Amino acid sequence: MACARCGQKYPRVGRIPVLLPRPDDHVSLWRQQLALLIAQGQHTLAGLDAEAATTAMLPDGQTRLRTLAKAVSDQVREISEVVAPALGGPLPPSESAGLPRGVVEHIHFLYRDWGWDDGESPENQQSLDAIRELIGTQTLGRTLILGGGGCRLAYDLHRLCGASDTVVLDIDPYLFLVAEAVVRGGLVRLTESSPTVQQVGRIAVQWTLRAPAGPLGDDQFHFFLANGLAPPFVQGTFDTVVTPWFIDQVPPDLRAFLATMNRMLVPGGRWINHGPLLYPPDAPLSRRFSREEVFDLATQAGFGIGRTSGASRPHFVSPLTGRGKVEWVLTFVAAKTSQPQD
Question: Which of 51, 52, 105, 197 has a Cα at 20 to 30 A from 284?
Fold first, then answer.
């Protein structure tokens, strides 16, 4: 892809365009992260095998460590099988490269979105129901999802809420490439494991990730590796913008972000938010906005707050371990009533 105005060329990662500043630098970094992921997997595997070989280990302990070692090896291999061909393989890492956050911190999005309960995790349904309860029979039209992650909510909203075109943005290729493969109809096998073991027989499980209602084509469901804080689209492109678990985690300046989001919408377009208002630990207290403050800022940015709901919900309760969390989640719909003030 190339910009007709400035000539800047934008590569693809697999089938996904990379619409980021200095896109080749991003691809290079992701390839370096892949090399670190593979090396870390090999290091972890060697350490577990060596620990299991010690004579002090009980037989069940040896089984536990060797099963965990195999699970780590399988997981790295499964991720690499999807990601490496799309990126062009690993590159020797620089000192500034770190492990990919999508794998290290967020891989449970993929398990839950497409694998747990054969793709029918009740957590997915609860998120969808919370939004459908507020929008009723209104259709989404042209829809932008900021921070698509594992993309299950975007997939469900597109199928069931009248989206004509859906665009999902994220800056993490590791989650996105797996999600794109699943949404297009592929079967991706991905191993989940846990070092917090209750039973030797429940250390790891391989999930088959699949789109439960069938694939969505690239004529209607579009993936872009791009910055959700500066979406690469002209003003007034979308009828609906959805921010799932986004406004508390990503924007350093919520005021500026709300103005940007307003510009993406057509007059009368809608913003749908679904997330916990759970801010990063290093966020200043002055910017850890409450529900009421978010609504005030949205009003100042040209939105009228509509229906709202808030409820505590299970969050990442794994069928493998039976462990997870409970999060309070705020869902609301806001309509664009005016242009943002510069």
Answer: 105
